[in-house]
Write a structure and sequence with these properties.
By secondary structure, this protein is α/β, with parallel strands linked by helices. It folds into two domains: 11-70, no CATH class; 72-247, Rossmann fold (3-Layer(aba) Sandwich), CATH 3.40.50.300. The protein is 56% helix and 13% strand. It has 13 helices and six strands. It has helices spanning 11-20, 24-28, 30-40, 44-71, 92-99, 102-106, 120-133, 143-150, 155-166, 183-196, 213-216, 223-232, 244-259, and strands spanning 89-90, 109-114, 138-142, 170-176, 201-206, 234-240. It has a six-stranded mixed sheet. Helix 10 (183-196) links the parallel strand 4 and strand 5 (201-206). Helix 10 (183-196) packs parallel to helix 12 (223-232). The longest helix has 28 residues, at 44-71. The N and C termini lie far apart (98 Å).
């Protein structure tokens, strides 16, 4: 009688096989996993539970990396560096409530309005980053980037791109009304805002009061409707004061002169 010999997959082949079925994290940590399981005399269930932990942690890490890349937040100064005393006026309660991200669950919008250099973009980026870390999908773009991206000849491509801006849990539109646009740009922006209306949240930074938006989008007939959709379920935080960047530049110039 011949006994059937047990076959053992070589370690290198096992690593490849695990990677082929999507267990890449387990494959990368295979030697360590085997060593710990052997030393601890783990039961099969314990091994499977550890495998689940390894894979779920890795997939959460990859998901976070993907969402951060997709968001396009760029360089970020943490809120710990924000000087709350610099703006002459800032509605801190609105900003801090927004940083809690409750407005995203409620489908509300946030508008940060004030002169350049008062920290509006910094705050918007911190809100966006906090949302990504909390598991939300986020897209951070300037108004100019969005409008340029949507200005294409193909109606089908334009519809797909508008839908891409409608999909994320949070859309941050930075520097809206900083430049002047034609009426077509206003129509494109309206389509994005209308798709998200009462469904998904928007954060907007702008240096122009709403009554001046007709100057930003001259001849556009949709501005009143756009503002109506944007502000219906929204909190607006007004910033007043001098540019902090200009303040820092003056301090650096003074410091350089004192060294001479």
């Amino acid at each position: 009688m011949t006994s059937s010999a047990k076959t053992t997959i070589p370690n290198n082949d096992l690593v490849s096989n695990l990677e082929q079925i999507g267990l890449s994290a387990t494959a990368q940590n295979l030697d360590d996993l085997i060593a710990r399981a052997t030393k601890g005399r783990w039961a099969p269930r314990v091994i499977l539970e550890e495998l689940y932990k390894i894979e779920s942690c890795e997939r959460a890490r990859l998901s976070l990396e993907h969402r951060l890349r997709f968001a396009g937040i760029g360089r970020l100064k943490p809120m710990a560096d924000f000087d709350w005393n610099w703006p002459k006026k800032i509605e801190r309660d609105i900003v801090e409530r927004a940083l809690s991200l409750d407005f995203i669950q409620e489908g509300r919008n946030l508008i940060l309005l004030g002169r350049n250099g008062l920290g509006k973009t910094m705050i918007a980026k911190n809100i966006a980053y906090a949302a990504v870390m909390a598991g939300y999908s986020v897209l951070f773009r300037t108004a100019a980037q969005i409008i340029e991206h949507l200005q294409c000849d193909s109606p089908q491509l334009r519809r797909r791109r508008i839908q891409a801006y409608a999909r994320p849990h949070l859309l941050c539109i930075d520097e809206l009304a900083y430049l002047s646009y034609d009426d077509n740009a206003a129509d494109l922006l309206y389509e994005v805002i209308n798709r998200r209306y009462e469904q998904r949240s928007i954060v907007i930074t702008t240096n122009r009061p709403f009554k001046e938006w007709n100057q930003v989008f001259p001849n556009a007939t949709c501005i009143a409707t756009l503002l109506d959709r944007l502000t219906h379920h929204a909190d607006a935080a007004v910033f007043e004061g001098e540019s902090y960047r200009f303040h820092e530049s003056e301090k650096e110039s003074t410091a350089r002169r004192s060294k001479k």
